[in-house]
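Tutorial, part two.
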Amino acid sequence: MDPRAAHTQSVLHAAVLELAAERPITDITVIDIISLAGVNRSSFYQHFVSREELLAAALEQIEIEMAHADEPVVITDATQPPAELVRFMRHFAANAALYRGVFGPRGSALVTARVRARMLGFVRAGMQISPEPITQAELPLDIAAAGTSGALLGVVEAWIAQDPFPAPEVAAGWMWQILGPGRMWGAAATS
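Running the prediction step on this input gives:
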């Protein structure tokens, strides 16, 4: 990618993330974003079709960086959530205001759908590389991944809605209990 285009996208990402942490995307205008980013309107529209698409792309970037999707999840003690799950929850804790706006009633359906799709992709990839198959039932991989990712996001949404919300380690423990030790990534299900 052209370095100027990469820079423009980077400053737009930073601007929308900052603004979305303060107020819902429905209350943010393109003018707010370009003013904070220091770019013009045409630069914005060269890269993004809407503020929602920009926010979805910015979240995608930070979630991919957070997930380290190419690294396998390591379960050393099935009674404790893996470090990767704790890291995942720390990401949401650090960006709680932002995600409250995304998942809230004034959030964007487009942004929420893209967050959900990314979560499904991360979980599905984890399940595909897992050495542990589902033992309780034979489930198609897509069904097991959808159920798991839906449960994960449900916990995240309920957790960050609390005021104050408990530590990420506590929320990771809740997830681990809900999903059953090892089940989150232990599902090399049939396709």
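Residues 184-191 have pLDDT under 50 and may be disordered. In part three we will examine how such features are distributed along the chain.
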